[in-house]
Every structure is written in structure tokens, then in C-alpha cells.
Amino acid sequence: MSTSDQFHKKSLDLLYEQLALKGKNLTSLISEISAFQIAVPSWALGAGGTRFGRFSIGGEPRNLEEKLEDIGLLARLTKRTDAVSLHIPWDIPQDVDAIKQKAASFGIGFDAMNSNTFQDYGQPLSYKMGSLSNADSAIRKQAVEHNLQVIETGKSLGSKGLTVWLADGSNFPGQAHFRKALRWTTESLQEIYVGMPTNWKLLLEYKPYEPNFYHTVIPDWGTSALICRQLGDRAKVLVDLGHHLPNTNIEQIVATLMHQDMLAGFHFNDSKFGDDDLSTGSIKPYQLFLIFCELIGGSEEKAQAWESVSWMIDASHNTKDPIEDLIQALEAISQAYAKALLVDRKKLSQCQMDGDAVGAQEVIQDAFLTDVRALVREARIQSGGEADPLNFYRKEKIREKLIAKRGKDTQASGL
Ligand SMILES: [Mn+2]
Fold first, then answer.
1. Ligand 1 centroid – CA 267 distance (Å)
2. Tens digits of per-residue pLDDT, 87-126?
3. Which stretches within 369-408 are classed as H helix?
4. Alpha-carbon distance 180 to 140, whole Å?
5. Cβ contacts of 111 within 8 Å, gap of 6 or more
6. Ligand 1 midpoint to CA 111 (Å)
7. Cis before residue 89, ω within 30 degrees of 0?
8. For residue 205, how far is its CA from the centre of ligand 1 (angstroms)?
9. How far, in Å, is the centroid of ligand 1 from the Cα of 272?
């Protein structure tokens, strides 16, 4: 037995005994961790960039088929992802049946579709001054039709959702009419909403700034929720962790949205200052854990069903190998989830009722400070994944093999 296998066995035995003393069942924890799957977007497999430049990592997937191969590899190593979220027009499937077959061969399904009206990509009219909120009705119509086309593509693939993130906004005071922009956006989204099949949901994302730096049409969860209310029950708010101003209480937003059955899903990433697209859990693991505490609480207390929430990683890998970064992100998400599962919710509830702030903090931090790495690793092993995916990836020299096969200067579609 290797040293790392021995270490794992000892850690797991210890954890098993400790959790048994706390009345926790290791088997059910492992099955809950194993069942939690997170989608990977089609734009996450290439080196990301900033507006200042982009540095290729070599061996990047050259087409959708190769992106699926990379996600298939991730799925095989980690057993924590079973779906791809496609971005249109970056990844339009040329042969739908072949793409479906390829994805199925890796056990990969199709999560929510992503439309793109934040850049010009060969369409007749420019989105420079906005898309769904544009003052020109012909541009709004074009943007609506793009979204309807994305829905059609998604239907053929078996997707069940449309994610809309709008870059619309303005850079200078006076440039845009706030109320008109909001009304036009809502009207455009209404046209898109009625074009969705009845078993689909619309995930409406928000972002406080960037690429516009004075005003964003949908800057926060409240504005997104207001619009969703006007659309219908199948429109819900999408929370992207990086799309908040520093120190925003995101766990409270999650609780509030679940209270209204309005949480569509999550985009996982992390940030220090703003939308930095850093690896999930790399900056604020405690925040991630607290978010999972609210998610589990909201689901257990029947505010909103766990199954109704979509999960996806949405990060940019400017300096890391994207596959390594995704392995780390999936691990961090599983750890946060596992820790949140350890919270003694009965005790916490009692502390809350008693006004025992000290006791409540002890309960929360007892779970957070538990080392759950062996638990997450064991869940992965039992699911048939690699014990240590990152180590396996490096030892097998997978990036080097991808460079040999695809070339050193390949560039995946995306930003
Ligand atoms: Mn996002």
C-alpha cells in the first residue's frame, strides 16, 4: 500500500470514529457527496484571458468534440461532473447526433444553454450599445431571435434550461435611460420566455459591473427577481459567486431566494475584489461553506427543493492548466458541501431559538474545521474515480499528451 493510501486509510478510520461519536452516518454522507454533480461549461477548457492578453497553455481543445473529451476525462477522474453547459455561438454543434453520441459515450449530458449577446460574432447588427435593452428595436429583435435559436439548439440536445447573462448597461451618467432599458429588457425576456418549452427554466444572471462600469441593467439579485416575477414561475435567479461587490452576504441572498423558491442555480468561482474568476474555494472557503449551509437548510426545511437548483463552474483560468483548475474547483466544492452536511442542524436551531450566539458559532465552526478530505476522497474512490485526480493527471503527463496530439498553439473558442 502506498504512503498516500495508508494516509487515506488512517484519516478515514479516524473520521469514521469521530463522526460516529457525533451520531453521523459515514455511508449516507458518502452517498450524498457522490450524488452531487456540477456541470462544466464549454468555455472552461481553454486558457482564459483578460482584456490585456491571453497566454495559451498548449493542447487546448480545438473544437466541441475535443472539449467533450476533456470533460469526459474530468468526469472519469473526479466523478463529480456529468454535464456540459454549452455556449452559443462559441460552440454550435455542427452534427447534433454525433455530438450527443460523443457526450453520451463519456456519460455527459447537456446542462443549461448559454446565449451570448455581449460581443459581436458576425451577426448583422452590433451589440455595442446593448442587446435586449438596446434603444433600437431591430437590435432587440435580433437578440431575442438569437436566444430563441439557442433554445432550439438546446432542445435538440436534451437541455432543459437557458441561462441569460446580459452585459447591457452604460459607461457614463446620462448615456442610458434606466427605466426604458429595464422595460425593454423585460419585454425582450418575455418574448424569450414564451419561446421556451414548458419543461425548461430560464436562469437570469446578474452582475454589478463589467463590461459596463457606470450601470448594468440587471446589477443585482433583486432586479433579476423583479424581472423573473414578471416572466413566470419558470424564470429564476442565477447566482454567480463572483458577481457581487466585495463583502456582500451571498449566503443571505441564497436564503432569501430559496425562501421565495426563486433560486435557479449557481455559478461557482471565487474572487478577491470583483469578478476575478478565481478558482472556487481558493480565496473564501468559509463563505462557500456558509452558502452550502443555507442550501442544505433551505432544502431540508422545504423552502426550495435541492434538485431544482442547477450547478456549474464558471471560472477563468488565466495562469493555470484549466483541467487542473477544474479538478481543484470540484474538490473545493465537494469539501464545502461535505462540511455543510456535518452541521448539527438541530443543535444550531436550538442555539438560534435560545439566542445563544456563542453556541451557534461553535456548531458552525465545528463542522467547518473538520478535515473532510478523506471523506471526499473515499466518495470519489467508491464512485470509481481516481483517489488523487490531480496527482494522476500530472503523473500520466496528460497535458503533454494533449499538446502532442493537438499542438502547442491551439486556442479553444471562448474569451
Ligand atoms: Mn456566470
1. 5
2. 999 999 999 999 999 999 999 999 999 999 999 999 999 9
3. 373-382, 389-395, 398-406
4. 13
5. 39, 83, 84, 85, 159, 161, 310, 312
6. 14
7. yes
8. 7
9. 16
